Amino acid sequence: MTKFIRNYYAGGNTAKGFHHFFPSNLEGLERIFILKGGPGTGKSTMMKAIGKKWENRYEVEYIHCASDWGSIDGVIIPQIGVGVVDGTAPHVLEPECPGAVEEYINLGESWDSRKLRFHKAEIQHLNKQIRNSYDKAYSIFARALEIHDEWEEYYIDALDREKANHLTKQLIQHFFGSIQLNKKPEVRHRFLGAATPEGPKDFIPNLTEEITSRYLIKGRPGSGKSTMLKKLAAEAQKRGVDAEIYHCGFDPNSLDMVIFRELDIAIFDSTSPHEHFPTRGGDKIIDMYEELITAGTDEKYEESLKDVAARYKSQMQEGTRWLKAANTHHKKMEAIYKEAVDFSVVEQKQHEIEKEISAMEEWVSF
């Protein structure tokens, strides 16, 4: 029987540049294998194969790549305390306990440097194009965030803060009651979704599949969704309740979802670009616009809101085009490296990692 598989993002192409939460998700693991090596050396394929091998026995977490839909940046088997992650740029990882916990796996040993030197000029050119494409995307996303802040102002000015605080207090009481757990809570920071070359993507259905009580927040920009989620997350930590905190893939300073698995509760921003609707009995809608915003705000600023929404959408589409360009250049780079890689060496590295994971499995069972 297949155990539960979780999919999420720990890194993202945001309005603040590339941002990641890898350390948060690797915290507490006994063994971490950090893969080094250029594009096309089979890192994602290796990690998927390792995860697949243990899926039938344990829960497996796949950390997805925001820059290449379908690829992964890591695989974690929490019950064994093992993780295998891509430690190359832009999510470079530095070991805290090298050898004792983290170990570098150099997949660069698999390539023929003579073949790569033959393509030196092309590799340098592609690297420059990739960097320029990401710089363009991040610059455009930064402008989009400024427009989004402008959009929010229409609703911030119409927000009833007293009602917002009351709603948050009601949810805190409903979720936590008198719960006070005598332990340090486990807190994981992740991204709800990601701006990818294929557009926005999220894994909300997968991440909340086991949750009975799901709260879908509806509303407008600036209607207090993130602020409420931050207060709920802070309350959980004060009470010793474990929390999965999912940041906005566009603005990492904003929150889009919090999951309290111990309480069987998930609450998330269910507006575009990660809009979802109730699909089962435990789903409830919290409409921030209806409950907290002055009636008639949409109508009052109708033309201005249409304009700001159109400008924001245009910038997001343009930024996505540059992510697509970066991915196209990266694929060309991968093709060059693949031609120079001896994949039998990569397979041997995979077998060595799997052997160590099996030893960890035996140790945990013992």
Short précis:
By secondary structure, this protein is of the alpha/beta class. The protein has helices spanning 22-26, 43-54, 113-118, 120-156, 161-176, 204-207, 225-238, 288-292, 297-300, 302-340, 343-365; strands at 5-9, 11-14, 17-20, 31-36, 60-64, 72-77, 82-86, 102-106, 187-191, 193-196, 199-202, 213-218, 243-247, 255-260, 265-269, 283-287. It has two domains: 5-110 and 342-365, no CATH class; 159-293, no CATH class.
3D structure, described in words:
With 366 residues, the protein is an alpha/beta fold. It has eleven helices and 16 strands. The chain has a six-stranded mixed sheet with strand order 1-5-6-7-4-8, with helices on one face. A hairpin with a 2-residue loop joins strand 2 and strand 3. The longest helix is centred in the last third of the chain and has 39 residues. It starts with a strand and ends with a helix. 39% of the residues are buried. InterPro entries: P-loop_NTPase. This is Nucleotide kinase. It comes from Melghiribacillus thermohalophilus.
Topology diagram in text:
Layout (H helix, E strand, L loop, with lengths): L4 E5 L1 E4 L2 E4 L1 H5 L4 E6 L6 H12 L5 E5 L7 E6 L4 E5 L15 E5 L6 H6 L1 H37 L4 H16 L10 E5 L1 E4 L2 E4 L1 H4 L5 E6 L6 H14 L4 E5 L7 E6 L4 E5 L13 E5 H5 L4 H4 L1 H39 L2 H23 L1
Parallel strand pairs: 1-5, 4-7, 4-8, 9-13, 12-15, 12-16
Antiparallel strand pairs: 2-3, 5-6, 6-7, 10-11, 13-14, 14-15
Helix pairs in contact: 4-10, 5-7
